[in-house]
Amino acid sequence: MTIPISSLLIPNLNVPGNAWPIIPNQNSARMLSILFQLEQSQWLSADDFEQVQRRQIGALVHHAYMTSPFYRKRLDEAGLSPDRIRTPEDWRKIPLLTRDVWQMAGPELYSTNPPPQHRKTSQLFTSGSTGKPVMVITNALTQLFWNAFTVRDHLWHRRNFSGKLAAIRFVSGNACDPPHGKMGQNWGPATADVVKTGPSATLHIKAGIDQQVPWLLEQNAEYLITYPSNVYALARFAEDRGIRFPTLKEIRTFGEILEPHVREIVHRVLGLKIVDMYSSQEVGYIALQCPEHEHYHVQSENVLLEVINEKGEPCQPGEIGRVVVTALHNFATPIIRYQIGDYAEVGSPCPCGRGLQVLNRIVGRQRNMLVLPNGELRWPSIEVDSALQGEQEIPPIQQFQVIQRSLEEIEAVLVTPRELTEAEKKLLIDWFEASFGWRFDVKFTYVDHIPSSPTGKFEDFRSDIAAQYMASRFSSR
Ligand SMILES: [Zn+2]
Q1: Please, what is the Cα angle at 237 between 234 and 240, to 5 degrees?
Q2: Per-residue model confidence (pLDDT) at position 375
Q3: N or C: more exposed end of the chain, with fewer CB within 10 A?
């Protein structure tokens, strides 16, 4: 584990006369011990890894069977008592947990007797991007693992802990509102037990780009964490005005799909690399970007991740399928074979030597999937301005969103200073055809502003029909 020596200053010292090597307090010791194990487990072979992971899965399934009426019924109905789940084929007989099923299960899903040693419990409601909220009960153990994977990400990417971390994101309440945001003394509770960090600053994502840029310049931060769509907007703004952020070393993204063109513009305009992470409120960290490549390593000490095809079978490297996750440590809300709503492409073993499963990319949520009338599926990456570069008449588009309304029709919602000319419309229609592989009927709509979702996330493409289409196409398991 490579922690820079300057940061090896474990806070909360409480042993008189001890200056070095440091004797950590209980919280620090616990975190360091998990990090030590994570450092080792990442190098295990896939087979060895599976063996240790299976112990945890066994404990989870047994607990769910004994204390969750929902899982007891599910497993009984499938003829699967916990001791009869021995092979991957047995495992795949466990029906998928969808948000609909989760909602319908109500209180039956939660454990009636979570281990008291997992300590204090909190609840969070999460609606993902589906508008179907479910409740997750978390506890000190899930929080501990969240913190450990946060630190693993820092260690993997060799961050300088003494630097300043700036965040532009959704925050509940108004403490981080523009123009000033909120300052913090350190990087937050995830790192506090094991490393002394520099300060942090957080600005609410509702700040406009013209507010974000001066704020960020003022911070002199080394790291910025925000959403991919916001990084893209920042880079565009910076490009137009020749702005640079001289102190920034790296941009970290989360919460949305990171498209390759966002990495490209950030590298080209700002000279920075992006490190992306894939997490969810329901299960915590799912995958982190490899320290040496742009693909992702599944955080298999935290989740069992499956990518499955339409028949429910595992996808092979290069194939795209549904992401199904099992949260290994939440014994208050057992989450077993949860169809999280994302699709991902399976990767081959990584040359970096880590045995952790590889995802080449996370391609998107079901609702971001374009359904072609011939049944093909696409996850469009839409970058109108670069697509139209070199054209004579570039349409004056300030903001756009493309929505699939039916199998035949897409709607282009545009913010423009005026309506487009017929020639400009044709240009867009041709470009849609080229990038979607289909000539849709295109309807143009003009608006003053295209809002992000309440949590600040923006989708440049979404489909009104994908969910219904996939429900009819996939069998229930
Ligand atoms: Zn790797």
Answers
A1: 150
A2: 81
A3: N
Residue type, 100: D
Distance 156 CA to ligand 1 centre (A): 10
The pLDDT score that the predictor gives to residue 192 is 86
CA of 296 to the centre of ligand 1 (A): 7
Which of these, 204, 231, 344, 210, lies nearest to 278 by C-alpha position?
344
Ligand 1 centroid from CA 384, angstroms: 32
Question: Strand (E) positions, 315-357?
Answer: 320-327, 338-346
Using the predicted structure, report yes or no on whether residue 394 has a pLDDT greater than 80.
no
**Residue 348 exposed, middle or buried by CB count within 10 Å (0-12, 13-18, 19+):** exposed
What is the CATH code for 1-367? 3.40.50.12780
Q: What is the pLDDT of residue 170?
A: 86
Identical fold between 1-367 and 370-473: no
| Lowest mean pLDDT across 201-205, 247-251, 455-459 | 455-459
Q: What residues sit around ligand 1, an ion, with C-beta below 5 angstroms?
A: 290, 350, 352, 354
Q: Do you know the residue count of the chain?
A: 477
Architecture of domain 370-473: 2-Layer Sandwich (3.30)
Q: Residue type for 40, please?
A: Q
The one-letter amino acid code at 151 reads V
What pLDDT score was predicted for residue 108?
97
Is the pLDDT at 228 greater than 80? The verdict is yes
Distance from the alpha carbon of residue 36 to the mean position of ligand 1, in angstroms: 18
Question: Which residue is listed with tokens 């350190």?
Answer: 186
Helix then strand count (H, E) for the chain reads 13, 20
Structure tokens given for 338: 């949860």
